Amino acid sequence: MGNVVNRVFDSSGPEGKVRGTPQQIIDKYNQLARDAQLSNDRVNAENFQQHAEHYMRLLSEAQREQDARREQQERENRERQAQRDADRAARQDNDPQSDDPSSAPQPDVVDITKDEDSGLVETPEAKADEKPKKPRAPRKPRKKPEPQAEVAQDTPAPDAAE
Fold it and tell me: Which portions of the chain have biased composition (kind: Low complexity) (predicted)?
């Protein structure tokens, strides 16, 4: 049936066309029915109420279908989630390696630094670290800035008050 709730309808009623979503058309026909009742026009009031009732049925049927679809989707989602949870639990039962490794017995650490041969290949980077660095030449002291500030004080400053 499509999305009736948001679809725009053109309704040809007794007073001309009414355009809008079903809820807007219902509101308009109810307003027209109230106006007809206030002017003691029972025939037009009944006619407007029947038009409003027609769109009320359309709207309620569309909402019922939406609710049924939503319930179906929620049910499917719950079933999928339950299946995922069951699969996850089965994997955890079948996979004892996923336990916390810190609680497992730890191997003893063997210290092999006595013979200085760790079995690793020497790289150029490691050799560079072993060479002592040349001492740097001492830095020269900074030059003192030339006294330019005194020159600025000798020149008269322009008076801003003038």
Answer: 99-110
Is 5 in contact with 64 (CB distance < 8 Å)?
A: no
The first and second tokens of residue 39, run together, are 């002017």
User: What six digits make up the tokens of 16?
Assistant: 């001309």
Q: Are 53 and 47 in contact (CB under 8 A)?
A: no
pLDDT tens digits, 123-150: 777 666 566 667 888 888 888 877 765 5
Instruction: For residue 11, give the H/E element and its range.
Output: strand 9-13
- The reply to whether the predicted model has a pTM over 0.70 is no
Q: Each residue of 109-126: pLDDT tens digit?
A: 766 565 566 667 777 776
Domain ranges, residue 56: 9-94
Domain count of the fold of the chain? 1
Asked if residue 61 belongs to a domain, the reply is yes
Question: Taking 90 as the threshold, does the pLDDT of residue 69 lie above it?
Answer: yes
107 DSSP assignment:
P
